[in-house]
Design a protein that fits this description.
With 185 residues, the protein is of the alpha/beta class. Helices cover 36% and strands 22% of the residues. The chain has seven helices and eleven strands. Strands 5-2-1-6-7-11-10 form a seven-stranded mixed sheet, with helices on both faces. Strand 10 and strand 11 form a beta hairpin. It holds the Pfam family DJ-1_PfpI. Belongs to the peptidase C56 family. This is 4-methyl-5(B-hydroxyethyl)-thiazole monophosphate biosynthesis.
Length: 185
Amino acid sequence: MQNRILFLLADGFEESEMVLPFDILTRGGVKVSLASIHEDPYVEGAHGLTIKADALLSEVDLKLFSGVFLPGGGRGVENLRALEAVLETVRSFVSADKWVTAICAAPIVLALAGILHDKRVTSYPSTEADIRPYCKAYSNDRVVVDGKLVTSRGPGSAEEFGFALLSLLEGEEKMTAVKAGMVAR
C-alpha cells in the first residue's frame, strides 16, 4: 500500500516547512494530500504564498492516511492549536499507531493534544519552554525520531526533516536516490 501523508494547513503556515517536505516526499513516491483546516481551500502562508488545498479537513477520511504533518509558522500554529478538530486528528493518528510529524512551533499542538508525555521531541528554540513540561525529553537535535513521532527545528531543517521522513516511509535506498536527484547534501 502506498504511504499517504496528510498535511494540515492553516493561514500563517511557514512556506518552506511545507513545500520542502512536500516536494521530497512526492519525489519519493509518497502521496501527499493538503487539507485546509479552515472552511476555505485557499490557505495563505506566513510570507504571502497562497496554496489551494486538496480538501477541507472536515471532508477528509483520516483512515486513508499513514500519517499527518503539521508545518510551523507562528500564526499558522496559533490557528492549528485553536481548532479542536486538529487536536482530535493528531490523537486519532496516535491511537491508530500512525505517523505524527511536526516542525518548528507545531510540536506545541502535539503537546496540547496530550501525546508527548512519553516522547523525545524537538521544536523551534523559542518554543522549548512551552513544550518541555509535556514531553519525556527535549532535544536540540535538528530532527528527532521517537517511534512514529518525528519532529524538527524550523525552516533551516525542513529539507533534512523531509529526507528523514522519506527514509522512514520508503526506505534508505529511495531517500538516497531522491537526494541524489535533487543534488542535495
